[in-house]
Amino acid sequence: MKLQKATQFALYSVLELALDPERQLSAGQIAEKYGISNNHLAKVLRDLGRAGLVESTRGVGGGYRFSGNVKRTTLLDIIELFEDIGAQGAEAGDRGARTDVGRGLHPVLNEIEQIARATLDSITIETLVSQIRRTMEREGEAGRAPPLRLVARAAK
Amino acid sequence: MSSRQTRRAGARPEEIRVRPLMPRDHRAVVALDAANTGMAKPHYWKELFADYGRRRSSRFFLVAEHAGRLVGFVVGEIRAWEFGSVPCGWVLAIEVDPGTRLRRVGTMLIEAIVARFKSAGVRKLRTMLARDDLLNLRFFRSQGMMAGPFIQLEKDLV
């Protein structure tokens, strides 16, 4: 499944931050780890902030931390902030969709879309973070990217 | 049993016991299913009790109880070589009293049936769900389950 860059950056950021909701990371640290543009990521983080999934603290030791609900937020919730994955269906005024070929083709495209949506909507951040933690524990420190340095602990 | 009664009971995971189905559980299983699905299916369950209630090495019907009351159940079976599949443990049904959710009852039931499947030499767990059954889809995902290599196909017979 090909997602737009902003969507991928959002998924990376949310999952990285949700791995430790107490941890604050700067946009630069996330951008460096995932090899993405700092400017593009800053815009994505702003959108995630508006959606209540991350919050930022300014100043020295500031950064972003996860502020959503890991049990309630699914991959689909994040993706739909940035793109419409249900865009394969026939649109109003699509002459092709009304042809014999279109009537044969669109049910198949809809089937793919429904499976994709069901899959993404069934995976919560909590589920994926648990899976990532299990993999990290299994593999230990070997063979994976170094953990991001802690910037600051959020005040409780 | 109503959700409120169970919530008042405050079932803690360590107080919940998973054990094989017994005849005295039948009415509570039928009632829990009717409450969860909105459809009473006594005849269906009677057949299932007969087929899965007897202790066999390939069919399992386990219940979770708290303070002597049934708060969930799981039904499963080991099936082999259908659709070219190696033997695997199928979860055919799992239900938890809504008032006892988020207390690991479902997880305990899955762990219990997985232990039986593993004792029987099975190394794969499988189930099938409706695409829009998000509650159960999310539960099974939380257990580490992912889409398998099979695709279910169907058509209307007219």
Describe the structure.
The complex is a heterodimer of chains A (156) and B (158). By secondary structure, chain A is mainly alpha-helical. Chain A has one domain: Arc Repressor Mutant, subunit A. Chain A is built from six helices and four strands; from the N terminus they run H-E-H-H-E-E-H-H-H-E. In chain A, strand 2 (54-57) and strand 3 (63-66) form a beta hairpin. Chain A is elongated. Mean pLDDT of chain A is 87; it is low at 150-156. Chain B is of the alpha+beta class. Chain B has one domain (3-142): Gcn5-related N-acetyltransferase (GNAT) (Aminopeptidase), CATH 3.40.630.30. Helix content of chain B is 34%, strand content 22%. Chain B is built from five helices and five strands; from the N terminus they run αβααβββαβα. The termini of chain B are far apart. The interface between A and B is small, with 14 and 9 residues.
What are the main properties of this structure?
heterodimer; A: 156 residues; mainly alpha; Arc Repressor Mutant, subunit A; two-stranded antiparallel ribbon; 6 helices; disordered C terminus; B: 158 residues; alpha+beta; Aminopeptidase; 5-stranded mixed beta sheet; 5 strands; globular; disordered N terminus
Name of the CATH architecture of chain A: Orthogonal Bundle
Can you tell me the CATH topology of chain B?
A: Aminopeptidase
CATH architecture designation of chain B:
3-Layer(aba) Sandwich
* DSSP strand count of chain A: 4
Q: Reading side by side through the largest sheet of chain B, how are the strands ordered? A: 1-2-3-4-5
In oligomeric terms, what are we looking at? heterodimer
What's this model, at a glance?
Chain A is mainly α. Chain A has six helices and four strands, in the order αβααββαααβ. In chain A, the strands form two sheets. In chain A, strands 1-4 form a two-stranded antiparallel sheet. A two-stranded antiparallel ribbon of chain A has the order 2-3.
